Amino acid sequence: MPNMSLKKVPIPEQDPQVRNKNFDEVALGYTEEMAIEEAKRCLNCKHKPCIAGCPVNVQIPEFISLIAEGKFAEAYETIIQTNSLPAVCGRVCPQETQCEQRCVRGIKGEPVAIGRLERFAADWAMKHLEKTYEKTPRNGKKVAVIGSGPSGLSCAGDLIKMGYDVTIFEAFHTAGGVLVYGIPEFRLPKALVQKEIDGLLAQGVEIRTNMVIGKTFTIDELFQEGYSAVFIGSGAGLPNFMNIPGENLNGVYSANEFLTRINLMKAYKNDADTPIKRGKTVAVVGGGNVAMDAARSAIRLGADKVYIVYRRSEKELPARLEEIHHAKEEGIIFKFLTNPIRILGDENGWVTGLECVEMELGEPDASGRRRPVVKEGSQHILEVDTVIISIGTSPNPLIRGTTPDLETNQWGCIVADEQTGQTSKEGVFAGGDAVTGAATVILAMGAGKAAAKAIDEYIKSKG
Amino acid sequence: MYKIVRKEVLNAQVKLLEIEAPFVARKAEPGQFIILRAYDEGERIPLTIADYDREKGTVTIIFQEVGASTRLLGSLNVGDSLADFCGPLGVASHFEGVKKAAIIGGGLGTAIAYPQAKKLHSMGVDVDVITGFRNKDLIILEKEMAAVSNRLIVTTDDGSNGTKGFVSDILKKLIDEGNTYDVVVAIGPPIMMKVVSDVTRPYGIKTIVSLNPIMIDGTGMCGGCRVTVGGKIKFACVDGPDFDGHQVDFNELIRRLSIYKDHERAAQERHQCRLEGKINA
Ligand SMILES: Cc1cc2nc3c(=O)[nH]c(=O)nc-3n(C[C@H](O)[C@H](O)[C@H](O)COP(=O)(O)OP(=O)(O)OC[C@H]3O[C@@H](n4cnc5c(N)ncnc54)[C@H](O)[C@@H]3O)c2cc1C
Ligand SMILES: Cc1cc2nc3c(=O)[nH]c(=O)nc-3n(C[C@H](O)[C@H](O)[C@H](O)COP(=O)(O)OP(=O)(O)OC[C@H]3O[C@@H](n4cnc5c(N)ncnc54)[C@H](O)[C@@H]3O)c2cc1C
Ligand code: SF4
Ligand code: SF4
Ligand code: FES
Question: What ipTM was reported for this prediction?
Answer without folding.
Answer: 0.90
